[in-house]
Write a structure and sequence with these properties.
heterodimer; A: 145 residues; mainly beta; Lipocalin; 7-stranded antiparallel β-sheet; 1 helix; 6% helix; B: 187 residues; alpha/beta; Rossmann fold; 16% strand
């Protein structure tokens, strides 16, 4: 993560995720007290503010899930869960990007297993600093979504 | 497409094996359905015996599933669930997880019973087990009740149930055909 020096509005240009400094991670609370954490290692994210309304979009390869357990990964990729064979990617496309105070708010459509749901991601955007922009957003999903 | 039929009943005059014979009649050409005949020989699951190479009967089961494009299971109902020998075979077939013969394999479950509910609970339990194995379970069911009077030659006596069976077989084949070619070949 870059050192925070200033906070800007959405910087102009087309910004693509840098695989060295970027990550897509998730955590799931279960059994009240336990939290499972995992990540997707193969993904791409683009912030396009080259003209018109800025758009944030990206996708992760489902089969790149790092669950640290082969059996659990097998379950996650099976037809009963992500169905990696039929829907190999999870996708996100923003519909609106705005700032609320110090917070970046991104409305968008999250597509998992071929089904899209409107979601709201919140976070921060910093830069550009030395030709890099640091974008950090997170979103929460209900289990029944 | 090659469909493998597995009857959960070992009995020589099994209604569920008969149901698979009817299914074989309604498979639209050039597709075909072959009934697996090795269920009786599959030993009780024992992790000590779950070795490479696998026991001969287990290898026969796994190979038959792997070489098929889809699987159609016909199950009777024992105590509101699927028969032990069928569950045992699915347990063997699910190993080694997750890269087992059933993974992403299109599977549908049908069933006949002499009772009035047509093994509907056994079918639901079989779908649950198959989902856990990583199979691509087709969300259908075919309860054939009063099985002793359900057959008329090589057809089901009830024309609507007969057509439902034909529809399930066609849907199973369509799901198999929709799979990515390279993954079907690798499965």
């Amino acid at each position: 993560m870059a050192t925070v020096t200033e906070k800007t509005a959405i910087p102009a240009g087309i910004w693509k995720s840098d695989p060295v400094h970027s990550s897509v991670a998730f955590s799931v609370k279960h059994m009240v007290v336990a939290t499972f954490r995992g990540a997707f290692t193969d993904f791409g994210v683009t912030l396009d503010n080259s003209g018109g309304e800025p758009v944030l979009y990206g996708a992760v390869r489902v089969d790149s899930v790092d669950a640290r357990d082969e059996n659990l990964k097998g379950h996650l990729l099976a037809p009963d869960f992500f169905d990696a064979e039929k829907t190999p990617e999870i996708r996100f496309t923003s519909t609106d990007i705005r700032t609320e105070g110090d917070e970046l708010v991104v409305d968008g459509e999250l597509e998992i297993k071929g089904t899209s749901r409107p979601v709201v991601a919140r976070g921060t955007i910093v830069g550009p600093v030395e030709n890099e922009v640091t974008l950090h957003v997170h979103l929460e999903l209900a289990k029944d979504e | 497409m090659r469909v493998l039929g597995i009857s959960g009943s070992l009995r020589s005059g099994s209604h569920n094996t008969n149901l698979l014979r009817v299914a074989a009649q309604v498979v639209p050409p050039p597709h075909e359905l072959e009934i697996f005949d090795g269920l009786r020989d599959v030993p009780p699951y024992d992790a000590d015996e779950d070795t490479d190479p696998a026991p001969e009967a287990v290898k026969g089961l796994r190979d038959a599933i792997a070489e098929a494009d889809a699987v159609l299971i016909a199950t009777p109902e024992y105590n509101s669930s699927l028969p032990g020998q069928l569950k045992n075979a699915l347990d063997w077939a699910s190993r080694p997880f997750p890269r087992n013969a059933l993974r992403n394999k299109p599977v549908a479950v049908i069933g006949a019973s002499t009772g009035m509910f047509g093994a509907v609970w056994a079918q639901a339990e079989a779908r649950k087990v198959l989902g856990a194995t990583g199979a691509r379970v087709v969300d259908v069911e075919l309860p054939v009740p009063h099985a002793e009077a359900a057959f008329a030659g090589d057809r089901l006596a009830d024309a609507e149930v007969h057509e439902n069976l034909a529809g399930i077989v066609s849907e199973l084949i369509a799901v198999a055909e929709a799979r990515p070619t390279e993954l079907s070949a690798a499965a």
